[in-house]
Amino acid sequence: MSAASRRARAQAASGRRAGLVSRLLVAGVDFVVVTALLFGLFLSFGVVKYLLGADSVDLPKTGLVQTGVGWPVVEFLYLAGAWSFTGRSVGKQLFGLRAVRADGARLGRLRACGRAAWCTFFGIPSLLWAAVSTRNAAVHDLVFRTAVVHDWAEVASTPQSPPIPALDSVDAPDATVQLAEA
Amino acid sequence: MNDTTIEARSPIVSLISLAPDAAFATMHDFRRVTFGAVGLGARVSLGIAGAVLESSPLRGPVARLEAQVGALSSRGAELRQQDTTNARSLVSRVEPVITRVLERVVGLLPIDALLARVDVNAIVSQVDVGALISRMDLGSLITEVLSQIELGDLIHDSTSSIATDARDAVRVEAMSVDGGLERLVDRVLRRRRDRDLVVPGFNLRGAT
User: Fold this and answer.
1) Quick one: pLDDT at residue B149?
2) How far apart are CA B191 and CA A132, in angstroms?
3) Would an 8 Å CB–CB cutoff place A100 in contact with chain B?
4) Are A144 and A114 contacting, i.e. CB atoms less than 8 angstroms apart?
5) Backbone angles phi, psi at B97, to 5 degrees
């Protein structure tokens, strides 16, 4: 497939909800990123201790508790921060996806933090529902009224005029919620 | 030469030996007197002429003559200026005509036929290419060309485009697999309608 045809296909797919496979790949990349961040955090602890008088730079001795607490904290901060600002984590940036509200607008900070907290604890199992949903929506998409769409543009998109609620869709009370929010 | 030798020479010889210097001195004095007399005469003449011209009977005619000459002079200057302007405008009007004529002439010339009669191969074969190349400093030429090409930027751009193409290929493949999985699940669940995958209100900036 040529670069031009890839771009054409990307244009055609832009704004469409991403499928399970793309989102799982994104989750895999984000997992690696969070691991690296956690490792970096531990390493920085070692460096600070060294600067404060330790003999050498050593990773702190961590156990299940430290990792069990540290991992969710780092993941939550990473996801909440990334989704709040651009709607994209590193994984989503790599695969050209973006988390948006159900009406196509940018995620707000509150919604991003709530979604990040949910994904931190229920991430993959929650995501598997996207394979079955008629709108490729994960459980956290249904709970927080969000969607993950293909967006290869580098700049965040802007929403159009207020959407007409889809009254014949299977999954959703979105229409009533959107009207209530408006 | 001592004093006795000088006294032994004859007066004629002495006289002749002094003649050149005496002649030079005489000519010098004559020139000075002559130029002085000429200058004096000129100054006197000018004074007299001025006095005569300034005299009452001649003052009027001289003034009229001066006015006429002045008018003629200014008219002459105007006419000269007009001639210069006319000449310039004539040249500026004629130049495009000449250009068109020349272009027409060049267009009528059978240049292709003329060139066809020229054996370029024979001319080129007479050129000693080896000698030409040996006279060129290829090293510095290549260095200069490479310095202008910005190889670093070229490599960076080509590497970036390779990485971008690889990234886009992965994205498209993931999209394809998404579509395949969706069709499979829909078939298993026996769904008749397509999935609603469009997010209303999502608009790409700059999308066509």
Assistant:
1) 77
2) 11
3) yes
4) yes
5) -65, -45
Whole-angstrom distance, CA of residue A158 vs CA of residue A105: 7
Q: Which has more confidence, A61 or B31?
A: B31
Dihedral angle of Cα B17, B20, B26, B30, to the nearest 10 degrees: 170
**Adjacent-strand bridge partners of A98:** A149
The answer to whether the beta carbons of residues A12 and A149 sit under 8 Å apart is no
A117, pLDDT greater than 60: yes
Least Cα separation, residue A50 to chain B (angstroms) = 38
Contact A60, A42 (CB under 8 A): yes
Rounded Cα distance between A55 and B172, Å, is: 51
Instruction: Report helix, strand or coil for A159.
Output: strand
pTM of this structure: 0.53
Instruction: Specify the pLDDT at position A68.
Output: 79
Q: Which chain A residues touch B196 with a CB distance below 8 Å?
A: 134-135, 166, 169
Instruction: Flag if B197 and A3 touch (Cβ within 8 Å).
Output: no
